[in-house]
Amino acid sequence: MSSTELPSLLNATASPKASAVRVAPGERLRSVRLPGITLTVRSRPPACAGLPPALYVHGLGGSSQNWSALMPLLDTLVDSEALDLPGFGDSPPPDDGNYSVTGHARAVIRYLDSAERGPVHLFGNSLGGAVATRVAALRPDLVRTLTLVSPALPELRVQRTAVPTAMLALPGMSALFTRFTKGWNAEQRVRGVTALCYGDPGRVTEEGFRNAVEEMERRLRLPYTWDALTRSARGLVDAYTLGGQHSLWRQAERVLAPTLLVYGCRDQLVGYRMAQRAARAFRDSRLVSLPDAGHVAMMEYPEAVAAGFRELLADSAKLNGGEVSGPVGSAEAEAEAEAGTRIQTATSASASGDASGDGAPVGRGGSAAADDDEPAAGGSATGSAGVGS
Predict the structure, then answer these.
(1) Please, are residues 108 and 57 in contact by the beta-carbon 8 Å criterion?
(2) Each residue of 163-194: pLDDT tens digit?
(3) N or C: which end of the chain has fewer CB within 10 A?
(4) Radius of gyration of the chain (CA)
């Protein structure tokens, strides 16, 4: 079956739940039953009625909680919802056991169609970035803008630090890893994931760390946690092998929506060298480079990501002769300066050249620009609590 087909689904079967999922102040959780899947959706009421909808898609091993720091910064701009992909967060596994990128994209499409919320401002991180790319390519009618934070688009030269995660896709590796880490407690696992996913693990607050440990303990009590993780990792690797019109890079070129690309220079899972290739692949793109960020910039530097999104909306409004509500707030501007961000624009007209338009490297003090001409397989994070890839 081709990657562009969306096969029919079976009826969903409820799976056992461990303990209650944490809900931040102002957030709400609800369960949405659809044919073949049941999705948990985290929402936050907007500052005023009538704002356009936004949907956030987390990475491998993550959950909708990955977006809790960013959503309140955008509540004057969008009506925010974040979903737990099937088998992650508080969503049970899909009935058909399909954890491919297309399977996850199908879940997103099915939800948007059922909720009649499209077109949305679609956000994705890592695996969620690959899923969001496929959704935007297959169903442009559902996507107003696309914001990708360290999207897991194919790389040939995978970073060494991403290899252990990629190996989860191999048969038998899940059982081996489980035996190897049998003595690890939830706190040790969270420290390992944080060190892998953050550019500076010291930015995690004590409260944030405690919440992540609590979520890790909850996830480890679920019988399907490792199955969902390994099958999704395998689905991501399988997506990297697809060629022709079904390849993720080819689908990136088909995306019509204005696109914001956010890359961390300290990302250990998705190579920063891919930033400029992505800026050329997406025909209407803006590139935000964060020199000190790792794999989950929306958790490390949410203000900078929010500022980049506001700029995306302003650019889109200018093209459409409209206005975006409110200027960039002082807190966002200060955070952007602190993170050393630089917003660049690459359109179809400049797609054959350097994404910066002037050949300058991206980032504070001139971070090295990349050897970006390789098709590639970015990374994913192993079993995280509140952090994913």
Answers:
(1) yes
(2) 555 555 545 544 545 555 566 788 998 999 99
(3) N
(4) 19
